[in-house]
Every structure is written in C-alpha cells, then in structure tokens.
TrEMBL record:
InterPro entries, alphabetized: F-box-assoc_dom_typ1, F-box-assoc_interact_dom, F-box_domain, Gal_Oxase/kelch_b-propeller
Name the record gives this protein: F-box associated beta-propeller type 1 domain-containing protein
Superkingdom to which the source organism belongs: Eukaryota
Stretches that traverse the bilayer: none
Pfam families per the UniProt record, alphabetical: FBA_1 (PF07734)
C-alpha cells in the first residue's frame, strides 16, 4: 500500500493492515485534533460459517507509524473495493448492510474515531455501489447514480439531514452508455470519464460542452482517474523512507 503526493512526487509505503480481510473499504484523511494523517480500513469476511459478519476496523497513524484496531466495533457492511470520500472531517462509503438487507452510507469520523450511518435518499432506487458513487459537488455532499440512459445528481443540502436530499440534475446519456463523474469546477461544470474513451464536460444544466479522447495519446492505456487538492505539506515524520510496522 502506497501514499503518494502528486504535487511533490513523494511516495511512501505502509504495511497492509494486520487483520485485513477480503471485502474491504478504505480511505485516507487528516485529524486536526492530533495533527495526524490516517489510513482507515474496514474489512468484512462473510465466508466464515461460524461468524458470517466477521469484521475489523483498523487505522494506520502516520504520526505513530503503526496500525491500531478499533476493538468492539461490529459492522455488517459489504461492498466492492471501495475508496472512501472525505468530507466534513469524515470518510464516507456506499455499502450494503447484510443484516438488514438495505443500502446505506457508512462513515468514519476521523476525530471521534467512530462509525456512523446515513440513509440514502427516500426515492433513490439504484444498485450500490455498482451504479452509484459518492462525490462532492461544490460545497455539498452529493451522490450520483446511473440509470438505463441517464445520470442523476443528488445533493444533500444540509449535512446529515436525510430530508435535505434533493435530485438536482438528470443528464441524458444518448451519446454514451457509461459516464462516471469525477469532479465539478468552480462554475458548476461537471467533468467525468467515459471508460476506455475519454473525458467529458457538462455544464450545470446537463449540456455537453467538451470531449477529450484518451486515444489521442500514442501510449494510451485505460487508467484510474481521481481528483485531489494540491498541497506541498509533508507528512508527520516525513523523512523520505518507508514506514514500517512496529513489532
């Protein structure tokens, strides 16, 4: 597992979580109360017959340079390899609750170091996470979902208030079968990816503005695309060497 800052080019390796299980959610964020960066891993193994919801919540402290398990935490959440969304001091994931057979948003508060849940919109009827994803639209915690021929944008206008979920945009996908929003610009334009094809830009009313093909590059290969906030700050104890797990 690597941590990499694209702004400085610095890359450091940390060990895998000691109790890492097959199904997992992961994320990375900053805890200002301790001036510490944390890697968070929630993992579940539902193949163990005697305990179908065997689970672990582990955090790696960059400052302490070690993994720690949050004991006594039980979460029957299942989801594919799911990179968490950092918003408002917490890391969020889309997941399915195996015990209740419902889809939810599960989050980890980086300061309190506790899990909490938020429900999906009442009128949200899409598969999680295959046809939906969490993201940040402007200053709002948001959700997008893909239908048969459309992309929906949902915005939570008041954080943690389920009644504030609002469907604010529906984009017809007449030109593309798949579209994955990545980020939004300061004026509300939406930038996303057409897998194995290119990047596209829509305005805040769903009008297609621009398409940039991946295949323009002679060395083109499909790759993951993520957005990030530039920073020249160093990690605590940053000394150009790998972090190792303490014995």
């Amino acid at each position: 597992m690597f941590l990499w800052n694209p702004s400085t080019g610095f890359k450091t390796q940390i060990p895998w979580a000691p109790k890492y299980l097959y199904e997992h959610h992961y994320g990375f964020g900053y805890d200002p109360s301790r001036d510490d960066y944390l890697v968070v891993v929630l993992s579940t193994d539902r193949e163990i017959e005697e305990n179908p919801f065997s689970s672990h919540l582990e955090i790696f402290s960059i400052r302490d340079n070690r993994w720690k398990e949050i004991e006594g935490t039980h979460f029957p959440y299942f989801g594919d390899y799911n990179n968490g969304l950092l918003f408002n001091g917490s890391i969020h994931w889309l997941a399915s609750r195996l015990d209740l057979e419902i889809d939810v948003i599960v989050a980890f508060d980086l300061m309190d170091r506790k899990l909490f849940e938020m429900p999906l919109p009442d009128d949200f009827h899409h598969r999680v996470p295959s046809d939906s994803c969490l993201w940040v639209y402007g200053e709002f915690f948001s959700l997008w979902a893909r239908g048969n021929d459309t992309i929906e944008r949902w915005v939570m206008k008041e954080y943690k208030s389920n009644s504030s979920w609002t469907k604010t945009l529906v984009i017809p996908l007449s030109n593309y079968s798949y579209f994955y929003p990545i980020c939004s610009t300061n004026n509300g334009d939406i930038i996303g990816k057409i897998p194995y094809s290119g990047l596209v830009k829509y305005n805040n009313k769903g009008l297609l503005l621009e398409f940039q093909s991946f295949s323009n590059s002679p060395s083109y290969t499909e790759s993951y695309t993520e957005s990030y906030t530039e920073s020249l700050l160093s990690l605590p104890g940053d000394n150009e060497q790998d972090y190792k797990l303490e014995e």
